[in-house]
Amino acid sequence: MLGPKEAAARTVLIVLAAVAAGSAGTLLADSPFATEVVEYVEGTGVGFDWISGDPFNDPNTALGRPTVDTTGDDWFIPLDEPVPVVPVYPAFRAFEIVTIGYDGRLTLKFDHRVENDPRNPYGLDFIIFGNASVPPGEGQSWTNDNPNDVTIGSADVAREPGLVSVSQDGGETWYIYGEGPYADDFAPTLGRVYDPENPDESLGEWNEWWGHPTDPTLPLDPALTADSFVGKTVAEVAVLYDGSAGGTAFDIGIFGLDWIQYVRIDNTGDGTPEIDAVVDVSPVRVSSAPPVRLEPIDVAPIVP
Ligand SMILES: [Ca+2]
Ligand SMILES: [Ca+2]
Ligand SMILES: [Ca+2]
Ligand SMILES: [Ca+2]
After folding, report:
1. Strands 27-28, 298-299: parallel, antiparallel or unpaired by DSSP?
2. How many domains does the chain have?
3. From CA 32, how far away is CA 217, in angstroms rounded?
């Protein structure tokens, strides 16, 4: 038997081993992201990716982590240039997001119970990422250039509020966030941290500002609203995210639930919501270092 101190030391060892092992381990941890499409009803009014011509009707795009880098728009930005998602330039490709058309719905499942963990930041337990955005200042455009040169023009969020429900078994009983929060709403996604000291060189020589990917398991501070962004530069707003990837976060505790495993988004007629990802909030930051829980971690077995 291990005493408490030994157990704590062992936990640290497991975390370290998980970081070191990469994909070499054998025990696959739960995915923080939704892993299964239970149902997708496309609905009407689903549009097309204006670059590829593909419809936004692939529900598998809502699985896995939210978009980090999207593509150029072939207008202001070359198509083949990776473009970190920022609040004025959201994911917009058919291989990144799925649209829930009018009268449509999308039901996703996690591979584990998403808990009402009291350690979760701000009491928020899961996060839905869409393609909400805020507009750049008048006469400004996003060109994937210096984020200190573009400001947020207004608090007018491009939102298409989808009605969110949760369930433990995916059966008859659903708990509805009838008064919000809503999917495809504030906060816009931020793909990478603003880190001009350590720009990710793999993006290309143009990148002088964007570092490692943000943490999609960390909710944005709920004290921040769209008004908090107005007049600030994209770089300043990115700093406000403090490592979070944004999205709309939900507390399952308001229903008295200890856990859920299914999330459903319904179109109730107010626009056609897009979904990029649905994510289980992590109760703890692994460290103040760059987040390491970006993909499911393979844990190496520890031989006693
Ligand atoms: Ca909670
Ligand atoms: Ca839409
Ligand atoms: Ca949208
Ligand atoms: Ca996606």
Report:
1. antiparallel
2. 2
3. 7
Neighbours of 239 (CB within 10 A): 14
52 & 9 share domain: no
Cβ partners under 8 Å of residue 5, min gap 6: none
- Model's pTM, two decimal places? 0.86
- CA 275 to centroid of ligand 4, rounded, Å: 7
Instruction: Give the span between the Cα atoms of 234 and 201, in whole angstroms.
Output: 20
Q: Indicate whether 288 belongs to any domain.
A: no
pLDDT in tens, 32-66: 999 999 999 999 999 999 999 999 999 999 999 99
Task: Tell me, in angstroms, the distance from the centre of ligand 3 to residue 75's CA.
Answer: 20
Is residue 59 domain-shared with residue 88, that is, in the same domain? yes
Q: Indicate whether 138 belongs to any domain.
A: yes
Is 230 in the same domain as 116? yes
Ligand 2 centre and the CA of 272: distance in Å? Answer: 4
Domain that holds residue 299: 1-30+294-304
Q: How many angstroms does the Cα of residue 184 sit away from the middle of ligand 3?
A: 6
